[in-house]
Design a protein that fits this description.
By secondary structure, the chain is of the alpha+beta class. The protein is about 20% helix and about 45% strand. It is elongated.
Length: about 180
């Protein structure tokens, strides 16, 4: 009789532990890996000085609607984990005759704060005066700093000399891979 009581107490005491462990495993199993394309972002670069050296082409906040992503994948609440860029490109769309002949190299960095105190480089390219209208940057795989609803992005360019246009209208396209984890 004592053995049955002891086994019953042990089984009852063990059930919460088994239940908690299985919930953790269920959450891991319900995590969803997704690809996300932030909306195409248009921007204009207006050279302020005729020089060579590094300049900032773009600086801004990229908003990611986390709630919409979670809902679209059947997750009522959760977090985004392990966000990494898988693609990044910059394209000139105006003036019509413009090309990247004035650009030696470019790089993109992200941060979770406006002052870029701890930036993470996500992509780069050496153009060396190539005259194409699109630059496809080589993505550097590494987790990016991600705030509660997005991240800050800067695109830098090293110029070969004076930019031969009064302004250059461009856009960037990108793709992120991330894990949606239920909470």
């Amino acid at each position: 009789m004592k053995t049955k009581i002891l086994l019953s107490v042990f089984a009852i005491g063990l059930m919460p532990v088994v239940f908690l462990l299985s919930c953790s495993k269920v959450k891991d199993l319900t995590s969803v890996d997704i690809k996300y394309n932030p909306p195409r972002t248009n921007f204009t670069y207006t050279p302020i000085t005729l020089k060579s050296g590094e300049v900032i082409l773009y600086n801004g906040f990229i908003r990611v609607n986390v709630d919409s992503l979670l809902n679209a994948h059947g997750v009522s609440s959760g977090t985004i984990e392990n966000p990494v860029f898988t693609q990044f490109s910059i394209t000139i769309n105006a003036p019509v005759e413009a090309n990247f002949g004035w650009l030696q190299s470019a790089r993109a960095e992200v941060s979770n704060n406006t002052d870029f105190s701890s930036p993470v480089q996500i992509a780069n390219v050496n153009n060396n005066g190539g005259t194409g209208k699109t630059l496809i940057l080589t993505v550097i795989n590494g987790n990016i700093p991600f705030g509660s609803n997005g991240f800050y992005l800067r695109i830098y360019a090293t110029l070969t000399g004076p930019v031969p246009y009064q302004w250059v209208q461009m856009y960037f396209d990108s793709e992120l891979k991330m894990t949606l984890k239920p909470s």
